[in-house]
Design a protein that fits this description.
Blueprint: H1 5-33, H2 36-65, H3 72-77, H4 84-89, H5 95-121, H6 126-157, H7 182-211, H8 216-247, H9 258-283, H10 287-309, H11 323-347, H12 362-392, H13 402-429, H14 436-457, H15 463-494, H16 502-535, E1 538-544, E2 549-552, E3 555-566, E4 570-581, E5 588-592, E6 595-599, E7 605-608, E8 610-612, E9 617-626, E10 632-640, H17 643-674, H18 676-687
Helix pairs in contact: 1-2, 1-6, 2-5, 2-6, 5-6, 5-7, 6-7, 6-11, 7-8, 7-10, 8-9, 8-17, 9-10, 9-12, 10-11, 12-13, 13-14, 13-15, 14-15, 15-16, 16-17
Function: Required for the biogenesis of c-type cytochromes. Possible subunit of a heme lyase.
Keywords: Cell inner membrane, Cell membrane, Cytochrome c-type biogenesis, Lyase, Membrane, Transmembrane, Transmembrane helix
Main location: membrane
């Protein structure tokens, strides 16, 4: 029976494809006819779809744990000596398994929506209940259709359960050594969950377009999914950067690699979507902007998947190099995006609204920020795909590197940060129009001071350091001012609360305000870290052996000894290097231990950096080739504030989580107060 696990997984994958088709059909027909029975039947089919995909994924996990090398995917990406944690992580470590995990995650989030919509619907009157059942039916139908497309792709081009019969290898080829890191456990799942969040946003946007309306409660349903997608994409990009910094031994934290860009571009659009949702909630307008960004973010995530899996770019991050698979993903992209844009073109007029807002208002600043973020996304997209298009047209080869991306992206980031600083102040000045001009003048005064301080700090340095320093100072000072103004306004407002539900609304806005402040502070921290490490890094490349030292940035690094290290997966030559105080070379502050690793399964060699992490600086040491019997090529780097790059990302994620979670709780309390009588009568009507 155990030997049949891969076949069971394959059969379950086929069953899930059938369930996806039936669920989509039931939901679409039921939603069109407002037939609650068909919609309920489709809901049960979606649960069956989720269960079959969950069991199929568990079958693949079991095959890895059991070292079943008759499964081609296991044989190519595992080994009997591989640690258990990496065996499980290897499930999503390459193309076939990552696609199965992606499809399972879509089904998981769809099942959560299926379960949660019953809770929301219980509080509605009969008319809104039918409308919401139809809306959620369309959402689940679209998710089922996306799963159907991906399942067909898996079954016909990327089957993770394909067997190597009758020639079963005795041992597997092992997981790529670069992937044998905790980053594999954290980075891909977070990125996939972010993509799945964008898939839910795509489904919700299409459901609203097909229905021809987007009421406020549907906007509230969409909001947590937008924020969750953004949080996971932020984490996925941050952990990917941290993984490359720690594992690859290059010493950099971002390389503008095409595959890195493939996940960064959807993050930029998702950031624009978060702010567009705020704009729509505030004005009850800009609905088309929000819905279009939902479609665009999902489209770019699929485009990124095509880039990673088609083999048209060479990268250590790429999942696959099969043009057939790439064309299949491109076909799915054309079908999904083409259908979505057609529906958008046909239904857009039903959701168009005229909105009046002043030139000097938070709405204007939010809209400008959204435009700049989308422009930044397409600038990165152009730099990523231009060399590919250039080569495709037989015009030769062309390389677009960091100079282009920095020249475009840094000024755009500076403009966005200017808007991030002033927009909250403009919101608070609406409580007293007389405050508008003083706040604006103060803001420009802060900007002038930030530029002056930046010029002093960046004297003799480049424009990017000037912009980064000015942007960070501007944002931090504006956040402090926003905090002071908000505390003053809330203190005055607390003495004038006269309505029963005012404390609920105050609590809701307070949580959103805290989330916004933390996320924006995270942006400032990341900018500081990136500016510092990019402009003040010190580096030395030298020949070192036991007893030799090198002074660097106030430290002395002494090569103490060389030793051999052996694990189940690899053997390594390890250098033990002490970090000493530059003023007192007898005081040892710590050790770094870089390695040259040779993996047993495939004899692949790689350098593993030794890093002494600190709040104010990192000491980064990588070990190169052997130059003599006792000497090696050693690269030593002093990286000021490097940790701040990822600390800022954690602040962003924390801010997003705070902004996402309490809103649902507050809304539940508010609804229970406003609809206590109508909800009970609605339930009686439905029962009758």
């Amino acid at each position: 029976m155990i030997n049949m696990i891969p076949e069971i997984g394959h059969i379950l994958l086929i069953m899930s494809t059938v369930f996806a088709l039936l669920s989509a059909a039931s939901h679409l027909i039921g939603s069109y006819q407002r037939n609650l029975y068909l919609i309920a039947f489709g809901n049960r089919l979606f649960y069956a779809l989720f269960f079959t995909l969950l069991t199929a994924l568990c079958s693949l996990v079991f095959s890895f744990i059991a070292d079943d090398f008759s499964v081609a995917y296991v044989a190519n990406h595992s080994n009997s000596q591989l640690a258990l944690g990496y065996k499980v992580a290897a499930v999503w470590g390459s193309h076939e398994g990552s696609m199965l995990f992606w499809v399972f995650a879509i089904a998981l989030w769809g099942a959560v929506i299926n379960w949660r919509q019953a809770t929301h619907s219980a509080k509605l009157d009969l008319e809104n209940l039918q409308a919401d059942k139809a809306y959620f039916g369309r959402v689940l139908a679209i998710l089922a259709l996306v799963i159907l497309g991906f399942n067909l792709f898996l079954l016909f081009t990327s089957n993770p359960f394909a067997r190597l019969l009758p020639n079963i290898p005795v041992e597997g080829r092992d997981l790529n050594p670069i992937l044998q890191d905790i980053g594999l456990i954290l980075h891909p799942p977070m990125l996939f969950l972010g993509y799945v969040g964008l898939t839910v946003c795509f489904a919700a946007a299409l459901a609203s377009l097909i229905g021809g309306k987007l009421p406020a409660r549907h906007l509230d349903y969409l909001r947590p999914w937008v924020l969750l997608a953004w949080i996971f994409l932020t984490g996925g990009n941050a952990f990917g950067s941290w993984w490359a910094y720690n594992e690859l031994g290059w010493g950099g934290w971002w390389f503008w690699d095409p595959v890195e860009n493939a996940s960064f571009i959807p993050w930029l659009v998702a950031t624009a979507l978060v702010h567009s949702l705020v704009l729509t909630r505030k004005t009850q307008g800009f609905t088309l902007t929000t819905l279009f960004l939902c479609l665009l973010a999902f489209s770019l995530s699929l485009l990124g998947s095509f880039l990673v899996r088609s083999g048209i770019v060479q990268s250590v991050h790429a999942f696959a190099a099969d043009p057939t698979r790439g064309m299949s993903i491109l076909s799915l992209l054309v079908i999904f995006v083409g259908a979505a844009l057609l529906i958008f073109a046909l239904k857009a007029n039903l959701l168009r609204r005229e909105i009046d807002f002043g030139l000097y208002s938070k709405e204007t600043l939010l809209l400008l920020g959204i435009v700049i973020l989308v422009v930044a996304a397409f600038s990165v997209l152009l730099g990523t795909f231009y060399p590919l298009i250039y080569e495709l047209l037989n015009l030769g080869t062309l390389s677009v590197g960091a100079p282009y991306f920095n020249a475009i992206f840094v000024p755009l980031t500076f403009l966005v940060v200017l808007l991030m600083g002033i927009a909250p102040l403009v919101e608070w000045q609406n409580t007293s129009k007389a405050q508008a001009m003083p706040i604006l003048l103060f803001g420009f005064g802060v900007l002038a001071i930030a530029f002056w301080v930046s010029l002093q700090a960046a004297s003799g340095s480049n424009l990017f350091l000037l912009l980064g320093t000015a942007a960070a100072l501007w944002l931090i000072v504006c956040l402090l001012l926003t905090l002071l103004v908000s505390l003053s306004v809330r203190k005055r407002a607390s003495t004038n609360q006269i309505t029963a539900n005012a404390p609920v609304k105050s609590r809701t806005s307070k949580q959103r305000f805290i989330g916004m402040m933390l996320a924006h502070l995270g942006v400032a921290i990341t900018i500081i870290g990136a500016s510092a490490v990019s402009n003040f890094e010190e580096e030395a490349l030298l020949r070192m052996g036991p007893g030799q030292g090198k002074p660097l940035a106030g430290y002395i690094l002494v090569y103490e000894s060389t030793e051999n290290v052996e694990t189940n997966s690899f053997t390594a030559i390890q250098a033990n290097i002490s970090i000493r105080d530059g003023a007192n070379d007898e005081e040892i502050l710590g050790y770094v231990r870089p390695q040259r690793q040779t993996f047993k399964s495939n004899a692949m060699e790689m350098s593993h950096a030794g890093i002494d992490h600190g709040f104010w600086r990192d000491i980064y040491v990588s070990m190169g080739v052997q130059l003599s019997d006792s000497e090696y090529l050693i690269r030593i780097s002093y990286k000021p504030l490097a940790t701040w790059i990822w600390l800022g990302a954690l602040f962003m994620m924390l801010g997003g989580a705070i902004a996402a979670w309490p809103v649902r709780q507050a809304r539940r309390v508010e609804q229970s107060e406003q609809l206590s009588t109508s909800s009970s009568s609605a339930r009686e009507t439905v029962t009758q």
